[in-house]
Each structure stands twice: as structure tokens, then as C-alpha cells.
Amino acid sequence: MLPEFMRAAVLFQPGEPLRIERIPVPKPREGEVLIRVAACGVCHTDLHVMRGEVKFPTPAVLGHEITGTVVQLGPGVSSVAVGDRVACSFIMPCGTCDYCAVGRDDMCEKFFAMNRLHGQLYDGTTRLHAADGSPIWMYSMGGLAEYAVVPATDVFRLPPELPLDRSAILGCAVFTGYGAVRHAADVRPGERVAVVAAGGVGLNVIQWAKVFGALDIIALDVADDKLELAKKVGATHAVRADKEPVAEVMNLTGGRGVDVAIEALGSAQTFELAINLLRDGGRMVAVGIAPAGQTAALEIQRIVRRGIHVIGSYGARVRSDMPRIVEMAAKGLVDFQQSVTAVYPLDQAQAAYDDLKSRKITGRAIVVMNG
Length: 371
Prior knowledge:
By secondary structure, this protein is α/β, with parallel strands linked by helices. The chain folds into two domains: 5-171 and 335-368, Quinone Oxidoreductase, Chain A, domain 1 (Alpha-Beta Complex), CATH 3.90.180.10; 176-312, NAD(P)-binding Rossmann-like Domain (Rossmann fold, 3-Layer(aba) Sandwich). The protein has eleven helices and 18 strands. Strand 14 (258-263), helix 8 and strand 15 (278-286) form a beta-alpha-beta unit. Helix 4 packs across helix 5. The longest helix has 13 residues, at 318-330. The radius of gyration is 20 Å and the shape is globular.
């Protein structure tokens, strides 16, 4: 028997703290799954919304990488069963738009137009409401709550060897890193890779670069604790990003620069730094989400004459990549659990984002729903 109400961390206005509210447990509709959430990752993208740097309607429930247990199926769902342990990615593909039809569900039109702009699912409504019936908008599935409705296209079984709570970061930090390394950068054996910003996403970029055969993996950050963790998960070199990093990387690469630079923070400074680490013909992949309107300066002549590639990467391809990511994690090819460095109960969700803002979290934090 499902409860009538649940706890959720609600953002009422940008700039205000999250408030824990009791709201009705949502119900899945056709093609949807209701999940009892075990854990939700704490991501900088949520922080952008909380600060008002990314426009999103309020009141809203944020949180977009979750794990949990299936408790109810909407009509037409047969891909999972009640009782399954599952993980969900932050991109929730509609499965029907032009991009989804050709396997590029990382570019799903309905996800961007309906969910990311309006906080809705694909019938044009939200599943979350206040006790008085007024709408509460969903950032992805609205994972900072005890229950979440997710389209069945974005629900993937977890094997028993993966922990239910820490596996939450498979859906964004690990998923985003995979997309950047495997698809956008297409890292090849023997290449040199620089990772600018060794936070939750950057740590997983490092691991995927190692999996796909990078010869040297150079982590850059301004925090020594992050660089130490980066070396533990696979970086071959650690460079302080605030102490002549370009010269240091050139020294490490015989003056040539790296084949691939992946930027995982989302600032003009780190974006420009990543470009300047490249060898001729190199590939820079931008992963970090910046505040709306943020721009960076590029030297056009160098981009053109030296064949520099600048590539954006929002995530991996949900329906084809998430099963591979889960399988590779279960086999131990990536040890994503090392990058989970802080755990908070739902009642302390605001504290988690405060710590993220003040750079107190070395890797990735998760919020757990059972206390």
C-alpha cells in the first residue's frame, strides 16, 4: 500500500533555500513508472537553477539522477516490474521525436522543450502537486523526493552487485562522462587527455578516458584534494589550474599539447583553458553547464589554421548507453563509488547544495531518502 503523502525538497523561488514539504505521492500515467527513490545525486546544474542562472518555473522539485525501487507501473509498461531495483538518467527520452528516432536521444526535442523549459512530462502536465492541488514543476523526474514518476524509456534495472544508493550518480556524473569520452571526444588508445575541473563529472571523465585507452590523463583543478582523488581514480598527472597550467601541460606533453581536452565545470575561464591545452588538430569537448548568456573568447585564427575542434556534449545516448554503463560498472571497469564523497539525508538537501557552492564536496554528493 502506497502512502498518500511524501516528503520532497521544494524550490519556491530562485535564491530561496529548499524547503521540505509534504506533498501527494505522484501517480504514473501511460508509459511511466513510479519509483520509490533511494538516492539522488547533487549536481551543479541544480545549483544553477537554485541561483536563477538557468531559467526554470517554480515551485519545483529538482534532482535529476536517481536510483530506487519500482513500486507502480503505468499502462503499457512491460520493460520493468514492480520490485525491480533501477537507475534513471537525467535525460528522459520521449522515444518519438526525430532525434530519438535516429538514436540521438541525448538531443530529445520533447525533453528540452517540455521538461527543461516548462517542468512537464510529455502529455504537457506535471505529476507533482501541492496538497491544495496547485502544480509543482519537475526538473527531470524531480528526484529530491521520496517518490518520482519517470518515463519507462529512462528506467534501467540495476544488477545486485551495484549498491542502490551510490549508483544514483550513474544517471548524470557517470553518464555525462561516458558521453563526452565515447561519443564527443571519441578518445582513442594512446591519446593524451586533459580533464579541466576534477569534480563529480570530471572524476568520471577520467575513469572513462582510462577505460577507452588514453595514454596520459592530466587532471587540472584549483583544489589539491580534488587532484589527489583524481590520481586515485586514474589520472596519470595532476596540475594546479591556477599555477601556469598551460606551461605545465606543454611540459608534460613534450611541448605539443593534448589530443583531447574535456572541460567539466562550465565557466569562461575553464573553457578557454581547455582550448589552450590542445595540440594542432586537437578536440575540445565542453561538458560543464554555464549560467545563461555566459560566453568565452576564442582565437578564431588558431581555430581555423590549426584545425581545432570544439564540441559540445550534454550527455550520453540514454537507451543504448545506459545499459552499457550499468554493465561496465557492474564488471568493475569503472569504480564510480570512489567519486561519491558525501552523503546527506533529504532533510539536509539544502546543506548539500550549500556545501557544493562553497567547494566543500571533493567529488559527488548524494541525498538519501531513508535518513
